[in-house]
Specification:
Chain B: Belongs to the cation transport ATPase (P-type) (TC 3.A.3) family. Type IB subfamily. Chain B: It is found in: Cell membrane. Chain B: InterPro entries: ATPase-cat-bd, ATPase_P-typ_cyto_dom_N, ATPase_P-typ_P_site, ATPase_P-typ_TM_dom_sf, ATPase_P-typ_transduc_dom_A_sf, ATPase_P-type_domA, HAD-like_sf, HAD_sf. Chain B: Keywords: ATP-binding, Cell membrane, Ion transport, Magnesium, Membrane, Metal-binding, Nucleotide-binding, Phosphoprotein, Translocase, Transmembrane, Transmembrane helix, Transport. The complex is a heterodimer. Chain A is an all-alpha fold. Chain A is 45% helix and 0% strand. Among the domains of chain B are: 65 residues, no CATH class; 93 residues, Alpha-Beta Plaits; 84 residues, Calcium-transporting ATPase, cytoplasmic transduction domain A; 141 residues, HAD superfamily/HAD-like (Rossmann fold, 3-Layer(aba) Sandwich), CATH 3.40.50.1000; 111 residues, Calcium-transporting ATPase, cytoplasmic domain N. A 7-stranded mixed β-sheet of chain B has the order 19-31-30-29-20-27-28, sandwiched between helices. A 6-stranded antiparallel β-sheet of chain B has the order 11-10-12-18-13-16. Chain B has a 6-stranded antiparallel β-sheet with strand order 21-26-25-24-23-22, with helices on both faces. In chain B, strand 27, helix 23 and strand 28 form a beta-alpha-beta unit. The chains are: A mainly alpha, B alpha+beta. The interface between A and B is large, with 37 and 45 residues.
């Protein structure tokens, strides 16, 4: 029974921790766009910034 | 048909005429594209190393317009700091951030493509596009790049980015939504955990638990309830303080008192070291209330979102003719236009301001305002309205109203106000609960005084029990929960309720009035009959399509089709028709008189077998070739919806500005006994007033602002959602996918909603009438009090949930209007 002295405060702490985690995830925008990440994971090039490597292919446009 | 290349356009998927030879090289193979615009866009994409787009996309892109030189000039204007004020934020030095709305996005690959493309612009630090809203947030370094470079990069790949200047407003709404969600979350988390600490006490009874464990559990409960009382319940305090200052007792006052009193008393008990605590009741109570409100506000926001983009409909720039001789034309931002400026509007452009035509003759598509798809011809001294589209030839307009004073802006304001309205029945519930609060507080005080004198030791617990058991939880949840469930259900089925009173008023409706064009009918002319005098029908249709491909007229869309015939030297004669050359022969298409003027032969009469409708004639210089009959077709579900409404006991009327024959014909087809034709807006108003004078409650279904006075006068108005954004602003509700068969269901649901609200209010009052005396007499143990309160709330919410959609969308599609609600 004495373990309750540890477990109950621990459970309270845990609840606060979960609350803080939720707050953080909400603040960091994880609930802003619920669709995007599901699509992004399927795309080979999923960082919006790593594009310079492909830039060398660039050729002048030649519209007729 | 053999003239059409087998492969569709690589970029936009439209057929490629054979005599064109545009290609792009993708994965080393030349692919056909349909026009120079698509070619330029596709090669931009491939050259940028973004060819993966073509593998990932799920739908072909929109057909790309070639980027005119003046557009680039125009984009430069966006670099003007004065213009940027509305939507760009800076960090003091060179960092800038803007919100852009990107048009033309149809799938995930488009987003990927746009993100890559924007990120390639040197100086762009960060870009992210929201999949749901298509809004991009871009941060860049202003010393390295300009906003116009970013906009141009987007235009290069065939999309259109425009500043989203409602972003700030949205930021505020977003913040509110987030904090509401978090408050709810805190309360929910706390509720669950506190309940776990409380269950042992309830199961064993307070006497059977050793005091040290009891204290431990109670202190844990206190710790977890503290955030709920201090943070989650905050909006209730704010709102009741506001009410109290205005001398009213709102629904939030008893909530605040209940929460604070129960918490304070429990804390006191805890410190004193004996007696019961109510922490579980506090957090459960707050959670249930917040949950109801969160759902309600979400439903409201969803109703508003469909109409939110109205303000973005105006173009950002206009061509202004500069004084003194008006010979020069300069590009200016629309926000810089002033009354009495002279503005040139080219064909195909949206008119940026309210004004009067000074020069030119053209037709204008006012579908945006009136819902009528047929263009209205405009000449000198005619008024034009911001947001409508100039179709045929250039107009020079003198500005009368700009910005916030245009009709469009007025409608947007109207809408904003409407969305903030509170349903009347909720106001009634507010009043009842106000009274209830006063009574409750009095009773609690008297109870406390009585027991103080009689048995001081139990005075406080009993007074708290009175407050807890009778907390007007059920009462304050009763209405919003039912309205939210019903609104959500309707939204799923395709009817967005945008005014508070709509559902309530729907229950009183006796008569239903339909507009014709665009409401009972599709609102778009379709080819229903072809008579050919000369040559193959296939060839005639091809010629017509080739010529009409050069026109933006709605009638032209009805004739357009895939064709291998290619017309050159096409000239658009506003108000008449088109002339053009095909394979060396000159052709004329259009109105009878216009074509007759270009054809030597005597005009044949209207073909005997042609049905009523608009006739379009086709002729070459010597022969009449064909007559096409176009007419508006009835919506497929209209007949079923009208019948279902009549079966429910409503009287159905047809009210239209169209001519008698067409209206009578439609009324007969649909089985509508009462119809009025050739009605002007004023005439429509008269009919509506007559109906109302005879004591009828009228619901009007229309699709435009030409119906606006009638829609406004009707007890309930429903706007069709088919493409015409601005028309929707005037309706109490918007039928957003224009499925008329939702209406009988909605009316039935409205009646059911009223029933449920009444049941809920009756239950809440009845429960309180029984529970309160018991609590006052000290017969209710505290755990029974909180259980009773919670059970009562759950019952009310559960009852309201009967109004929510029974299944998800899949099932709904199969459900017909009749069996929607038994």
């Amino acid at each position: 029974m004495e373990s309750l002295y540890l477990l109950i405060p621990l459970s309270v702490l845990l609840v606060f921790l979960i609350g803080a985690l939720f707050w953080w995830s909400m603040r960091s925008g994880q609930f802003d766009d619920l669709e995007g990440p599901a699509h992004r994971i399927l795309q080979d090039d999923d960082s919006a910034h790593a594009v310079s490597s492909k830039k060398e292919i660039e050729t002048p446009k030649t519209p007729d | 048909m053999n003239d059409i290349a087998s492969a569709p356009c690589f970029h936009c998927g439209e057929p490629v005429p054979r005599n064109l030879n545009y290609t792009v090289v993708y994965r080393d193979i030349p692919r056909p594209v349909c026009c120079a615009g698509c070619q330029s866009v596709a090669s931009s994409i491939i050259d940028a190393g973004l060819a993966d787009y073509y593998e990932q996309r799920e739908q072909p892109a929109d057909r790309a317009q070639p980027l005119p030189a003046e557009l680039q000039e125009r984009l430069r204007l966006y670099d003007d700091p004065a213009l940027q004020q509305g939507f760009v934020t800076g960090d003091g030095s060179n960092g800038r951030e803007a919100a852009l709305l990107i048009e033309g996005i149809s799938c995930a690959a488009c987003i990927w493509l746009n993100e890559r493309q924007i990120a390639r612009v040197p100086g762009v630090r960060e870009v992210s596009i929201n999949y749901t809203t298509h809004r991009a947030r871009v941060r860049w370094d202003n010393s390295k790049t300009q906003l116009s470079d970013i906009l141009k990069a987007v235009a290069d790949i065939g999309y259109h980015a425009q500043p989203y200047d409602r972003a700030r407003q949205e930021l505020v709404a977003d913040k509110t939504r987030k904090s509401a969600l978090f408050r709810l979350w805190v309360a929910g988390l706390s509720m669950m955990q506190v309940m776990m600490f409380t269950v042992p006490i309830y199961i064993n009874g307070i006497e059977d638990i050793a005091p040290q464990w009891l204290r431990l559990l109670q202190w844990a409960g206190f710790m977890l309830t503290l955030p709920v009382v201090l943070y989650s319940a905050w909006p209730f305090y704010v709102s009741s303080w506001r009410d109290a200052r205005r001398g009213r007792a709102g629904m939030d006052l008893p909530v605040s008192i209940g929460v604070l009193a129960a918490f304070a008393a429990s804390t006191w008990t805890l410190i004193a070291g004996h007696g019961e605590v109510y922490f579980d009741s506090v957090s459960m109570f707050v959670f249930l209330l917040l949950g109801g409100r969160y759902l309600e506000s979400r439903a409201r926001r969803r109703a508003g979102a469909a109409l939110d983009d109205l303000a973005g409909m105006l173009p950002a720039f206009a061509h202004r003719q500069t004084a003194p001789d008006y010979a020069q034309i300069e590009e200016v931002a629309v926000i810089h236009l002033r009354p009495d400026d002279r503005v040139l509007v080219k064909p195909g452009e949206i008119i940026p301001v309210d004004g009067v035509v000074l020069q030119g003759q053209s037709s204008v598509n006012e579908a945006l305002l009136t819902g009528e798809s047929a263009p209205v011809s405009k000449a000198e001294r005619h008024d034009v309205t911001a947001g409508t589209v100039n179709l045929d030839s250039p107009l020079i307009i003198k500005t009368t109203h700009v910005g916030e004073s245009t009709r469009l802006a007025g409608i947007v304001r109207l809408l904003d106000g409407a969305l903030a309205e509170k349903p009347r029945i909720a106001q009634v519930a507010d009043k009842i609960s106000g009274l209830f609060v006063a009574v409750l507080l009095g009773v609690a005080l008297l109870t406390w005084l009585f027991w103080q004198w009689h048995d001081p030791q139990h005075a406080l617990p009993i007074a708290i029990a009175v407050l807890v058991i009778s907390c007007p939880c059920a009462l304050s949840l009763a209405t919003p929960a039912a309205l939210t469930a019903a609104t959500g259900h309707l939204a799923l089925r395709g009817l967005l309720v945008s005014r508070g009173h709509t559902l309530e008023t729907m229950t009183d409706v006796t008569d239903i009035v339909f507009d014709k064009t665009g409401t009972l009918t599709q609102g778009q002319p379709r080819l229903i009959h072809t008579a050919v005098w000369y040559g193959e029908p296939e060839r005639a249709a091809g010629i017509a399509a080739a010529l009409e491909a050069h026109s933006e007229h709605p009638l032209a869309h009805a004739l357009s089709r895939e064709t291998a015939v290619f017309a050159t030297d096409v000239t658009n004669h506003p108000g008449g028709g088109l002339t053009g050359m095909i394979d060396g022969t000159g052709y004329t298409i259009g109105k009878l008189q216009f074509v007759a003027a270009h054809c030597a032969a005597a005009p044949p009469g209207v073909p005997a077998d042609a049905p009523a409708g608009t006739h379009i004639w086709l002729a070459c210089a010597t022969k009449w070739i064909a007559c096409f009959t176009l007419a508006d077709s009835v919506r497929p579900e209209a007949a079923g919806a009208v019948q279902a409404l009549q079966k429910q006991g409503y009287t159905v009327h047809l009210l239209s500005g169209d001519h008698e024959a067409a209206v009578a014909d439609l009324a007969a087809t649909l089985g509508i006994a009462s119809h009025t034709a050739s009605a002007t807006p004023a005439g429509k108003l008269k009919v509506m007033q007559q109906l109302q004078r005879s004591g009828k409650k009228v619901m009007m279904i229309g699709d435009g602002v030409n119906d606006a006075p009638v829609l406004a006068l009707a007890h309930v108005s429903v706007a069709m959602g088919s493409g015409v954004d601005i028309a929707q602003a005037t309706g109490d509700a918007v039928l957003y996918d224009s499925k008329l068969d939702v209406l009988p269901m909605a009316l039935a649901l409205a009646r059911k909603t009223r029933k449920v609200i009444r049941q809920n209010l009756a239950w809440a009052l009845g429960y309180n009438l029984v529970a309160l005396p018991l609590a006052v007499c000290g017969l209710v143990t505290p755990w029974l009090a909180s259980l009773g309160m919670a059970a009562s709330s759950l019952l009310v919410v559960g009852n309201a949930l009967r109004l929510a959609a029974p299944g998800r969308l899949k099932h709904n599609k199969k459900t017909t209007a009749d069996q929607g609600l038994a």
